[in-house]
Specification:
This protein is of the alpha+beta class. It has 4 domains: 281 residues, Nucleotidyltransferase, domain 5 (2-Layer Sandwich), CATH 3.30.420; 73 residues, Alpha-Beta Complex (Actin, Chain A, domain 4), CATH 3.90.640.10; 100 residues, Substrate Binding Domain Of DNAk, Chain A, domain 1; 83 residues, no CATH class. The protein contains 14 helices and 28 strands. The strands form 7 sheets. The protein has a 7-stranded mixed β-sheet with strand order 18-17-12-13-14-19-22. Strands 1, 2, 3, 4, 10 and 11 form a 6-stranded mixed β-sheet that branches.
Length: 579
Amino acid sequence: MALIGIDLGTTNSLACVYKNGEIILIPNQLGKYQTPSVVSLTERGLFVGEAAKNNLILHPENTAASFKTFMGTSKVFSLGEQLFLPEELSALVIKQLVSDAEKFLGEPVTEAIISVPAYFNDSQRCATKLAAQMAGVNVERLINEPSAAALYHRLAYENKDGSIMVIDFGGGTLDVSIVECFENIIEIIGIAGDNHLGGNDVDNQIAMFFCCQNGFSIESLNNEEKAILYKQAEKAKISLSSNDTATMVLFAHNKEYKLILTNKLIAEICRGLFDRIKKIINQAVKNCSRRPIVNDVVLVGGSAQITALQDYLSNLFGKQVHVSPEPANAIALGIGVYAGIKLRDENMHDIVMTDVCPFSLGVGARHSTEDKTVYMETIIPRSSMLPCAKEKMFYTLYDGQRALNFKIYQGEQYYVENNLELGEITVGVNPDKAGNQWAKVTFMYDINGILYVSVESCTGEVKEKEIVNEKLHLSHEELEKSKEKLTNIIQSQFNSDGNEIIKKLVYLYQFASSAEKEHISYVISDLENAYYSGSPIICKKTYERTKELVKEFEHNISQEINFEDILSDDDYDFWDEEE
């Protein structure tokens, strides 16, 4: 029985394991560490990962991506005739990562630690746990993404005590954390974030600029043309991290359009986005439990290598910011470190890491009977170190009042209607003059993000409640129904060896030469015909004669393409405090 770590990303997801004193990234079935967080359901079957990402162009109406952005909401994704919630799609990604991990480790995976953006609220965190439940994996611990990155950075590059700012710029989310490091203690002292700001927004800005420069609108493109345009934008963005220029090409409206991009032009196109990042950085500093003196700024996340962003931040701080040598893997590696801590490994047992409450927690209250609107009375302020416990006294407002009702909220807005309601508790009091009867409210928030509320009235009545989003507590029947839905899709569409081979061939196709593409296309068609025949014998025979061909394709293509991520080996130190 294994415990793994999962970096469940907006654009890509990774899995890792802590074993024999090492943090090991787990390769997927294509030998890559990153699995695109994309799900596609076509008449040919269910695809998760790289093959599904290719279907964004081939079958956009049957493919979903960036669904992490909508976790905890009621948004529904349509994949053909079937409807999915974001957590159901995330469950399919988790299930794929677990399946790859079990093949790699040779043992069942029963538990996982999953990372979430630091600024995920209660609904989003609960939806993440629910996705794991649907995938059949137990998750006791969620860890904030920048906290995981800070943990890995500290252990991998420990040179000096001091403070670091971790800017985690992923595909769809931005998190900023300020971390103090002293000997074996890693303490998060402030966080801020935006769950709707990431590298995908850079792609959107580039795509809109491309259309504007060529005299047409995105809305005038069909779905396939849009998918190609966004893929071109992403490729150009990645190319500019190592080249001075990048060229985008799109064939649409019976005409070929081009655009040459530079990092200077990207900086102009994305100025508004970068200014939003600046605001989040300012907010993170303001949210600190004590004034920080930052020694180092570290960029992590899949979008950390955008040169224009690095230049913007270096100008902002007046010093060169550092990009983690493994920016796309830093969070997963940090989860691996935390897994070692959780397993009480002898190399990790002395490490102490604290985290903070991402949002304020409180109850609705009124100052007087004349108040028309209920305001937020904060009990646990955001950035409070976890675990923590706080209490406050509340008094009756009316003569003859017989009860005190407490609705519990999460958020920073003054009026509770603009915050997230988590639950409520009511206790009785004796009828008396206003202000004579009271109740003491105690909030206890643990390291796993579980809030316990205790209310004790002056009459001696005590009520306690564990405040957990109701979505996390599906009934046994509801959970089994959800699991059955996902399992049926997987078993009916995903279990044949032929389907596995088709997925691999679809992936290889994008890297093949013209001659190889024609050959691969023929082999895919042969496999599909076998699949549709419904004959197990035909499927088996076709699969057997195809296996060696696939190995040949892989060998030939790998001579030209490096399938592993190209990672920098450059090391760096903290900035000197004197600077």
